[in-house]
Amino acid sequence: LNVLDGRAMAADMAGSLAARTATLRESGIVPRLAVVASGAEPAVESYVRMLERGAKRVGVNCATVWLPATTDARALGRVLDELSADPVVHGVLLQTPLPAGIAPAAVAAHLSPDKDVDGLNPLSAGRLQVGQPGFVPATAAAIMEILRRAGAPLTGAEAVVVGRSLVVGRPVAHLLLQADATVTICHSRTRSLAEVCRRADVLVVAAGRAGLIGPDAVRPGAIVVDAGTNATGGGLAGDVDFEAVAPVAGAITPVPGGVGPVTTMALLRQTVDAAARGVAVG
Ligand code: NAP
């Protein structure tokens, strides 16, 4: 009963997005997302296929550029420059992992901030930090969407984020701060992790460690959002020990079926926002 159903939330978001893209199409705008991905990891292909299906469902055209494993940073930069300059493309997603030897930070500046629908460009990150409008990493946007739909009170709440990556931990911490929560960020060097987590009214976990968070780390009644996706023998597992924590938590996202599907829709929503802004600008 206290399980936050990410698939249902995503379905609802898909409905609103489909209505928005229908209106845009009537005015001659077809929202278009370009995905740039490397086939280095098998999980990427299934993720990209899922994204393409989601895009189709909401009326966003989605085309994927598959990079050969031998692509270097300069060639990838050129691909991103071209997509950034292409007037029919509204959003560009650079899917990680990148081909061997390329750090996202080395190429992210090639994403136009106007099309950076996963908030990877340092300018997007800076805008988030100073509180200016801009695109944010889709997973962080999804976590905030889930909290909003869960009715989680954030003003003055104790929020603890486990993980400080550029794609999840840090941006969601900034968004929680913007929502007037009191935010603590934990990482691999944090002392007494469970004790710090127990302070949380809202606990967001994005560490990439299956079972990291057990019931001893959760205050009874806390809202727990688990962004972790860890491949285990039996499928996908989160960072939270769901079976043990669910009875303690006030509400909790499952894995799979929690943050993941909402992330896809958050990314598509930012793409539709980018397309709609194009209309406003003329
Ligand atoms: P990441 O870049 O590897 O960052 C992991 C963070 O967790 C780091 O800040 C790390 O600390 C911290 N950490 C690791 N082990 C820890 C421990 N034992 N105790 C406390 N903190 C610990 O990973 P990421 O890209 O943020 O992804 C995190 C998880 O979210 C992964 O499972 C990933 O698959 C998942 N994810 C899901 C989505 C989605 O849409 N659902 C999207 C993106 C990522 P240090 O900084 O000290 O190393």
Q: Brief description of this entry?
A:
With about 280 residues, the chain is α/β, with parallel strands linked by helices. The chain has helices at about 5-25, 40-60, 75-85, 105, 120-130, 140-150, 170-180, 195, 240-245, 260-280; strands spanning about 30-40, 60-65, 90-95, 160, 180-185, 200-205, 225, 230, 235, 250.
Describe the 3D structure.
There is one protein chain. This protein is of the alpha/beta class and 282 residues long. The protein is 42% helix and 16% strand. The protein has a five-stranded parallel sheet. It has a three-stranded parallel sheet with strand order 2-1-3, with helices on both faces. A two-stranded antiparallel sheet has the order 8-9. The structure holds NADP nicotinamide-adenine-dinucleotide phosphate. NADP nicotinamide-adenine-dinucleotide phosphate binds at residues 139, 162-165, 167-169, 186-190, 193, 206-209, 212, 227-230, 259-260, 263.
Strand order of the largest sheet: 5-4-6-7-10
Mean pLDDT: 96
Assign the structural class, choosing from mainly alpha, mainly beta, alpha/beta, alpha+beta, or little secondary structure.
Answer: alpha/beta
Helix content: 40-55%
Radius of gyration: 19 Å
Largest sheet: 5 strands, parallel
Question: What are the segments in which pLDDT stays under 50 over at least 5 consecutive residues?
Answer: none
Shape from CA axes? globular
Total helix count? 10
Q: Report the strand count.
A: 10
Distance between the amino and carboxyl termini: 47 Å
Strand content: 15-25%
